[in-house]
Amino acid sequence: MLELPIRIESVNGASDDTISVDELVIAGWTGRNKEAMEHHIAELEALGVKRPAHTPIYYAAAASRLTRAPTIEVLGGASTGEAEFVLLAGPRGLYVGVGSDHTDRKAETIGVTLSKQMCDKPIGAAVWPFEEVADHWDELVLRSHAMIDGERVLYQEGALKGMLPPDSLIHGYDAGGQLKPGTVMFGGTFVAIGGVRPATAFECELEDPVLNRRLTCRYAIRELPDRG
Fold it and tell me: Any idea which fold 2-224 has?
């Protein structure tokens, strides 16, 4: 079990709390446009990544992989960040955060579930109460920037209307329609602008244009030598 401190940034003020995380779930293939998603699945198949058994699909990952560290260490140069909204079920309700499903692409060709265990999952410190964004969820914008060849570039961007909404993801995972306290779920990502490629640093953010606020998560990537 991981004790995860959170900073709750509400329209009514800010407060601190802790979530005892005992379940980390990575939801994959969560796009609403099934045709576009099928095209992307076929592209990855051509690269050796196995087709998912169904969509969406829920990958289990070790809760200890969640991190707030400013730098993560990865094996070799085959891993990349993925900006995702994050649902966190605490003892006092459901929260929304932002994080990165950092993934080893080399391991992904062997097995996606395996790849989910290979890298830490950075997550931002601040969260919003879910009820404050529920009525305008589709207008939230997820984006990321990456440091590539010394240049900060826009890596991903899209409104959450392009992804399955939280209630659909939660019902797909739990027939009761609720995440049990202690569960953290990453909600899916957008395609990389210019293609998937490694970076030396990664930033992701979730913007709320209605309430004029944003959540952020930033980290550096240190490559460890892969000597076989």
Answer: Fumarylacetoacetate hydrolase; domain 2 (3.90.850)
Query: Which spans in the chain are helix H?
Result: 34-46, 105-108, 112-116, 166-173
The owner of tokens 């010394």 is 150
CB neighbourhood size of 21 (10 A): 21
Is this structure's pTM higher than 0.85? yes
Radius of gyration of the chain (CA): 17
**Rounded Cα–Cα distance for residues 186 and 97 (Å):** 9
* Model pLDDT, residue 35: 82
* Domain edges within the chain: 2-224
> In order along the chain (228 residues), what is the average pLDDT of each group of 10 residues?
95 95 95 81 78 90 97 96 97 95 93 93 98 98 97 97 96 91 96 92 98 98 93
Residue 81 CB contacts under 8 Å (≥ 6 apart), including other chains: 100, 101, 102, 122, 144, 146, 155, 199, 202, 204, 221
Q: What is the pLDDT of residue 40?
A: 73
Q: Which two tokens stand for residue 56?
A: 């969406």
Q: Answer yes or no: are the C-beta atoms of 123 and 24 closer than 8 Å.
A: no
Give which of 181, 193, 187, 142 is closest to 169, Cα–Cα.
187
Best CA proximity match to 130, nearest among 41, 10, 40: 10
Rounded CA-CA distance 145/178 in Å is 32
